[in-house]
Each structure stands twice: as C-alpha cells, then as structure tokens.
Specification:
Order of helices and strands: EHEHEHEHEHEHEHEHEHHE
Number of helices: 10
CATH class of the largest domain: Alpha Beta
Helix content: 40-55%
Bound molecules: pyridoxal-5'-phosphate
Strand content: 15-25%
Shape: globular
Distance between the termini: 52 Å
Largest sheet: 6 strands, mixed
Strand order of the largest sheet: 1-2-10-7-8-9
C-alpha cells in the first residue's frame, strides 16, 4: 500500500516505549498488558495530542498563520499541549475554554496561563449552540489586527490530526516485532475520536492485525461511531492520493466500548480512583481520572467479561493526562 505523509514538525519525543505491566498482569491472571507510553511524548507537552499537533501545526505554519485558536474543557490536555507548543514555536495561542471563568488556576489551566495563552471562557451550552460562530468571531478579530489565525478543532481530531496515530502505528509495528508479540487488541480512551480514528486507519495501513477499541469517556457509542467515521472520511477526502484500490475505509472496523462514562465527562467514581491508586502502587504508572483511568478501568472490566480472551497480549495506549489528576487530588483520599 502506497501512502505519503503531509508536512510534519518534529515535536514529540518518539518513539515512545512499549512497556509490559508484568506485576499487574500477573495479579489479574493475564492477559499480558503492554502500555504504549505516550504519556512520555514530552514533559509539559506530554500525551497523545502532540502526535496530532505535529501535523496540525505544520499546516498552520505552511499556511502562514501566526495564531492558533482551539477549544476544550477547562482542564483540557489538548489545549495545554497546544498552548505550550505555540509558545515553543513563537505562535499566539487563543484558547476557548468551556467552563467557568472562576476555575482554579491548577493543573492544565495553570500551564495554559503560564505560557501566556489568551483565554476566553464559554459555557458548554454556549459552545454547543454557536461554537462555529465563536471560532469565526475570533478569526475575524485577529484578521482585523493583520494576523492570520488557524482553528484547530477540539482534540485536533480531524482529517489532519488523524495522521498522528497513523504514524504511531508505524512505531507499534516495530514494537511488536521487537517484543515478538502479536497482540489482537489495542485499547485507548476516546474523548474526541482522533486517537481512535488514527489507530483504526493505521492498524490497517501498517497491517498490525489487531482490533482497535475506543473506550469513550463522554457521549456514547453512536456519537463516536459517527465522529470517528466522519474524521476518517475527511482524512480520505483531504488526502485522496493515499488511498489505493485495496483500501476501503468503509471496511475498517470502528469499535467503541461504551458503559464507562459514569456520572459524566471528567467525573470519576471511587472505582476509578482505586484503579489509579492500584496501578500507581504496583507499577509506578500514573493514570488520570478523566481519560486513562476510566479507560484502564473499562479495559480491566472487559478482561473479566472475556472480550479479550482470544489473545495473550493486549495494548493499552497511555494517552497522558497527568495534569488532570491534580485538580481532583481530594478524591484520592491520600
Ligand atoms: C489524556 C487524554 N487521553 C485520551 C484522550 C482522548 O483522545 P481523543 O480526543 O483523540 O479521543 C484525550 C483527549 O481528549 C486526553 O487528553
């Protein structure tokens, strides 16, 4: 299969390690859980978003933009990563944060402010009702000042951002060969769909032979089946030269494991915090309550239910998110 990547900046510390959670796997009686350590893609910029932003920000520079506008929750890892990378690249970053203006300057928000991002707060409803209008208003605002702004959608999950986890699959191919494993399942947390979408396409392009599962931390299965297929459709439309006759995105399996959102986005139950503590204690691996902790908990539950019984090895993509742990410190009861 012939495919070529669009322009890309080298921003992430990659390849990231693939590590076996040997004590944890033994304790639960298998399968062997391998963690792709994308929490190690950088320090302040850690996590999954930097992989996507290598492509999105390359496009911003290519298009002559001096400003990047993006959106997320108050504790958005994506917004924090974008803000830090913009500072690194000398770009202005404008964050549209969904939440209260009075949010505590902690975790990701602290870092957003530290690197000098411009921030405006909107309620969830406001953003849902007129998100596009809000983006356009700020694009026009900068245009009137002689600046050119690029809008990166929530989570950088779009046709460009998908390349980040397509490229990660090239790394996984090398990881699997080195470890001499043939995992049948790759699992990640899904929040805006781009990680799952990239992995789903990359799994086919690099012939990994696995099933990719997204465990949604907000919305529901129907929402993400639609969102991920839309992102893939957009990727296909924007990069038609990459599709040869043998590649049919309609035949890609998009798999969502629903049922672990709990009380809502960024709201984690005691079970999730207990899982975070257990993984930290047994393996020195830090998960977060918004994304990776929920997804890891869901994966463990599905192991118990037998979903992954057909394989000895499964892959958990650690998508980062450590800064989201600090504002929820009280629920750890330490
Ligand atoms: C730490 C972390 N893990 C997982 C995700 C989910 O990735 P995606 O938005 O690509 O679905 C996000 C962002 O939404 C995140 O910040």
């Amino acid at each position: 299969m012939i495919f070529s990547y669009p322009p890309r900046l080298k921003l992430a510390q990659t390849p990231t390690p693939l590590e076996l959670l040997s004590r944890f796997s033994a304790e639960i009686g298998g399968p062997r859980i391998w963690v792709k350590r994308d929490d190690m893609t950088g320090s302040g910029v850690s996590g999954n978003k930097i992989r996507k932003l290598e492509f999105s920000l390359a496009k911003a520079l290519q298009d002559g933009c001096d400003t990047v506008i993006t959106c997320g929750g108050v504790q958005s890892n994506h917004c924090r990563t974008t803000a830090l990378l913009c500072a690194q690249l000398g770009l202005r970053c404008h964050l549209i944060l969904r939440g209260s203006e009075n949010s505590e300057t902690d975790g990701n928000l602290l870092l957003d402010r530290l690197v000098g991002a411009e921030i405006n707060f909107y309620t969830n409803t406001e953003f849902q009702q007129r998100g596009d209008e809000i983006y356009q208003q700020w694009v026009d605002h900068y245009a009137a000042k002689g600046s050119k702004a690029m809008v990166i959608p929530v989570g950088a999950s779009d046709g460009i951002g998908l390349w980040g986890y397509i490229a990660a699959c090239e790394e996984l191919k090398t990881d699997f060969a080195r470890e001499n494993i043939e995992p049948k399942h790759i699992i990640c947390a899904t929040g805006s769909g781009g990680t799952q979408g990239g992995l789903t396409v990359g799994n086919t392009l690099y012939d990994l032979g696995a099933t990719v599962w997204g465990i949604n931390v907000c919305d529901d299965e129907a929402y993400f089946l639609n969102k991920v297929s839309e992102d893939i459709r957009q990727w296909q439309q924007w990069y038609p030269e990459n599709i040869d006759a043998g590649f049919n995105p309609k035949q890609l399996g998009i798999n969502v494991i629903d049922g672990y959102v709990g009380a809502g986005y960024a709201k984690a139950s005691e079970d999730i915090f207990n899982t975070i503590k257990k993984v930290a204690t047994l393996e020195g691996l830090i998960l977060d309550p918004v994304y990776t902790g929920k997804a890891f908990y869901g994966m463990l539950d599905q192991i118990k239910l037998g979903l992954f019984d057909d394989t000895e090895d499964i892959i958990f993509i650690h998508t980062g998110g450590i800064f989201g742990l600090f504002p929820q410190r009280e629920q750890l009861h330490l």
